[in-house]
Design brief:
It is globular and about 50 Å long. A two-stranded parallel ribbon has the order 1-2. It is mainly α. It has six helices and two strands; from the N terminus they run βαβααααα. α1 links the parallel β1 (4-9) and β2 (36-41). The protein has a single domain (4-154), classed as Acetylglutamate kinase-like (Carbamate kinase), CATH 3.40.1160.10. 60% of the residues lie in helices and 7% in strands.
Amino acid sequence: MKKTLVMKFGGTSVGSVEAMEQVAAQVRLAREDWPQVVVVLSAMSGVTDLLLTGANAAAAGDEASSGVTAAALRETHLNAIEVLLRSEAERELTSERVHTHVQEFSALCHAVHVLGEASPRALDAISSLGERIVVHLVAGRLRELDCAAIAVRASELIRTDAHFQAANPD
């Protein structure tokens, strides 16, 4: 069985392009000593709060605010891509993934707006988008550094119970 190193980086560790560059360098260095490295990332600084603010505004009847939030979310991550990723192919691939997740955010906020409430399940789906976006940026940078990397959703690896907002591994 291969030894696996799990590295966890919080929001400030991926809060800027410079910080993401440091994360990629640390992971690449760790790969020299470990046959397998799993990287767990938080959202960029402030992104989770931004997502929840947009969701709560939609639930309160202000769907326009969630549109402003979607634009800010897109801009934050696309700006980071332009600085972090050097290869046009990685930029395009990662930008497409950002657009997909921003569209998902907009669709979820629309549903919350129509229902007039943000259920715990909806809030979990919305608040996880920051992590689900940033993994693509860091994975892209790692690939540019010739370090094999794929972005994987936590839900593909960890099963939890249905206690949304307070779930435990199942």
